[in-house]
Design goal:
The chain has three domains: 3-86, Winged helix-like DNA-binding domain superfamily/Winged helix DNA-binding domain (Arc Repressor Mutant, subunit A, Orthogonal Bundle), CATH 1.10.10; 92-161 and 272-307, Periplasmic binding protein-like II (D-Maltodextrin-Binding Protein, domain 2, 3-Layer(aba) Sandwich), CATH 3.40.190; 164-268, D-Maltodextrin-Binding Protein, domain 2, CATH 3.40.190. 43% of the residues lie in helices and 23% in strands. The chain has helices at residues 3-15, 18-25, 29-43, 59-86, 99-104, 106-116, 129-137, 204-215, 229-237, 247-251, 283-299, and strands at 48-49, 56-57, 91-97, 120-126, 143-148, 157-172, 195-199, 221-227, 243-246, 257-260, 268-276, 305-307. The strands form three sheets. Strands 3, 4, 5, 6, 9, 10, 11 and 12 form an eight-stranded mixed sheet that branches.
Length: 310
């Protein structure tokens, strides 16, 4: 049973005339009649009675007509739905991001994408890179902003480096500067013994900071640990300790936080956009990917950001 055959059947049922139905559909009358006969043969029942030149629906035709109308209407709806998706008037993108990237990078990017494609729903999942990789692997996300290197072993993912970002030290503006002279850079070794606020386990920034401190020969003094980005910034503002955060987050943190750079070589993280290698992202996700890549190229002009490796 073909959509074309159902359309021919409905046209004849509406006009009760084969020739007029063919004219309305801009096909030849013999072709229309042939398709109707093929449909009747497939169904095993006559759909029209042709007594004395009058065309009438048989019982089988009466049964098929409302079903055929519904099938054709659903097919037309499907065509319009797909067309709207292809033209990016509707659809969704499921994007994962670490909380720091959701805070620092995404607001401006998502606004630019939404202004261009207001009909596309944006579903954002925050989590650490380990969690986001698992979500990508099981098909729960289309794209994810992650921090490299990815956990090993990891599923087959395609990654594109967006930029490298410096980490900086933030402290409460009400406390004395953590470095002398004020505003001067801090060495990793200078963090030894200082009260520090730390992210939860599994957080990329936690792992990076702890590894740097241990490489410098000490265990950091943690006063509070276990928070997400907003919580850590709040604890720092309250004077509970210093924090190590990305430069883009610090730039948005406000005047109640003091930002102190780390002395070279400092700490730097690599941010990448990832998707599954075995499945191409949907078209809307590919457009968002282009917006992210453009934003990343512009962002590297900002302090603390550097081009990613090609």
């Amino acid at each position: 049973m073909q959509f074309q055959q159902l359309a021919y059947f409905v046209a004849v049922a509406d006009t009760r005339h084969f020739t007029r139905a063919a004219q309305a559909l801009h096909v030849s009358q013999p072709s229309l009649s042939q398709q109707i006969r093929a449909l009747e043969k497939e169904l095993g029942a006559a759909l029209f009675s042709r007594a004395r030149g009058n065309i009438a629906l048989t019982d089988a035709g009466e049964t098929l007509l409302p079903l055929a109308r519904r099938i054709l209407a659903d097919a037309d709806t499907a065509r319009h739905e797909v067309l709207e998706l292809v033209q990016l008037r509707r659809g969704r993108v499921r994007l994962g991001a670490t909380p720091s990237l959701a805070t620092g990078l995404l607001p401006d990017v998502l606004r630019a994408f939404h202004d261009r494609h207001p009909g596309i729903r944006l579903l954002i999942e925050e989590g650490g890179s380990h969690d986001l990789v698992r979500h990508l692997a099981r098909g729960a996300l289309d794209l994810a902003l992650v921090v490299l290197p990815l956990p090993s072993p990891s599923p087959a993912l395609t990654t594109v480096e967006l930029f490298q970002e410096d980490l900086v030290v933030v402290s409460s503006a009400a406390d004395p500067p953590p470095a002398e002279p004020a505003g001067g850079p801090l060495r990793i070794a200078d963090l030894e013994g200082r009260p520090m606020v730390m992210f939860r386990h599994g957080y990329d920034l936690r792992d990076l900071t702890l590894a740097a401190c241990r490489a410098a020969g000490f265990e950091p003094y943690l006063t509070v640990e276990g928070g997400e980005m907003d919580a850590v910034l709040g604890f720092v503002r309250a004077g509970l300790g210093i924090g190590v955060v990305p430069a883009t987050v610090a730039a948005r943190a406000g005047l109640d936080l003091r930002v102190t750079p780390l002395a070279r070589p400092g700490l730097r993280r690599t941010v990448a956009l990832a998707h599954r290698s075995d499945v191409a992202p949907p078209r809307a996700a590919r457009v968002l990917q282009d917006v992210l890549l453009t934003a990343a190229r512009r962002a590297v002009a900002s302090p603390g950001l550097h081009p990613g490796r090609a």
